[in-house]
Amino acid sequence: MQLDLFLDSRDTQLRNEAIDALRRRDGEALRQAIGGLRAEYPDDHSLADLDLLAGTALSGAVPDSTPDSAPQIAERLALIDTELAPALRRLLGEDSAGRWLAPLFDALAASPAARTFRREHALTHAGALFLRGNDLAAARAAVTRIPSWRKIPEPLSWMTEIAWREDRPAEYWPLSVELAWIAPSLFDSVLSRAPEAVRRLHGAFFSEFESDEGSDDSSSWFPAWLLVEHSELLEYFRPLEYHPSNAARCAAVLVNLLTGERNGLSSKLVEQRSQLRALAPRLFARYMALR
C-alpha cells in the first residue's frame, strides 16, 4: 500500500515514487525510482520486493512471452504465487495486488496450451486462469467449452465460484450442491470464497450434523441437511444432476417428500419417509421432529 503518513519524510517520498511507477507498470520509471531510493537509503525494507518486480514482472518475462505447454504455464503460476504475489501484497495491499496481477493471468489464459482441459494440469486451463484474473465472462466461456464440465470437479468448482462472484443464487445453489456431492473436499477448499449465506449455513451444518455413516460427516451431506433445516431452498434443488451416493439419494428422496407435502400429495409420503429412514435414520428423526 502507498505510504503517505509522513509526507515530509524523504524515504517515504522516494518509496512512493517507486510504488506509483509500479502501479502504472512503468518499468523505466520504476527502475529510476529504485535507483534513487537505493542511493539514499540502501537498506530500505522495500528494495528487495521492488527489485524483484522490476526485474521479473515488468521485464516482459511473465506477461508477454507465451508458454507453449501446461507445465510451462504451471512454472509461471508458481513464480506468481511464490514470489510476485507476496511482494505485491506487501507493497500494494491485497486488493491492488490482485488487480495488478490480473493481466498476467489473462496472458497465460491466452496460450493455446490453456485451451485443452487435462485434470492433471487443471489449474493451467483458461477457465481457472481467467477466474484468477477476475475475468468472469471469459472464465465462464472457457468452462462451457469443456465437454461434460458439470460432471468434472475442477470445472464445476470454477463455474460455482463464477456464480458466487456474480451473486446468482438460482445458479450457484444447484452448482454448490453438486460440487458438495461429487467433490466434498474441493467444495470445502473453495468455501472461503462463497457468499456469506452459503458459508453461514455450512458452518451450522458442520456444527450440528452427525451422519449415520461412521466418520462420513463430510460436506456431501450438506445438501440433504439443507433440505431438512431450510426447506425454503427446495426450489434450488430441482435442476440438479444427482450423484449415485447415499448423501445424494437422501437429498433426492427429500426433494420428492417436500414437493409432495407442498402439493398435498400424500399417497407416496409413507413410502418416501420409509426410504429416508432407511438411508439416514438420524436425519429422518430430525425431519420428523420439524413436521
Attribute tags:
3 domains, 15 helices, elongated, mainly alpha, 291 residues
Could you describe the 3D structure shown?
This protein is an all-alpha fold and 291 residues long. The protein folds into 3 domains: 59 residues, no CATH class; 80 residues, no CATH class; 124 residues, no CATH class. 64% of the residues lie in helices and 0% in strands. It has 15 helices and no strands. Helix 7 packs antiparallel against helix 8, helix 9 crosses helix 10 and helix 13 runs antiparallel to helix 14. The longest helix has 23 residues. It is elongated and about 85 Å long. The mean pLDDT is 90.
Write a concise synopsis of the structure shown.
This protein has 291 residues and is mostly helical. The protein contains 15 helices and no strands.
Strand content: under 5%
Number of strands: 0
Low-confidence residue ranges: none
Number of helices: 15
Q: Radius of gyration from the CA trace?
A: 25 Å
Based on CA inertia axes, which overall geometry fits? elongated
Mean pLDDT: 90
Distance between the termini: 55 Å
Summarize the topology:
Elements: H1 10-24, H2 27-40, H3 47-57, H4 70-92, H5 94-109, H6 126-132, H7 136-144, H8 153-165, H9 169-182, H10 184-190, H11 196-208, H12 222-229, H13 246-262, H14 269-279, H15 281-289
Helix pairs in contact: 1-2, 2-3, 3-4, 4-5, 5-6, 6-7, 7-8, 8-9, 9-10, 12-13, 13-14, 14-15
